[in-house]
Design goal:
Structural class: mainly alpha
Shape: elongated
Oligomer: single chain
C-alpha cells in the first residue's frame, strides 16, 4: 500500500486526469477502464471533503 498527500488543487487535477484517461479508451480496453474506475472510487471529492480546522 502506498500513501500520498495531495492538497485540494492537486486532488482536483488528479481526478480530472483520470476522467480524461477514462474517456480516451474504447471497448477494447475494458480492463483499463475497470482499473481507472476503481481508482476514481478511491479518490475523495475535494468539494465534499470536510476540512479539519484546529
Amino acid at each position: 500500500m502506498h500513501t500520498i498527500e495531495l492538497n485540494d488543487e492537486e486532488l482536483r487535477l488528479l481526478r480530472s486526469a483520470v476522467r480524461s484517461y477514462l474517456q480516451a479508451f474504447g471497448h477494447n480496453e475494458a480492463d483499463l477502464l475497470r482499473a481507472a474506475k476503481h481508482l476514481m472510487v478511491k479518490l475523495p471529492d475535494p468539494a465534499t471533503t470536510a476540512v479539519a480546522v484546529g
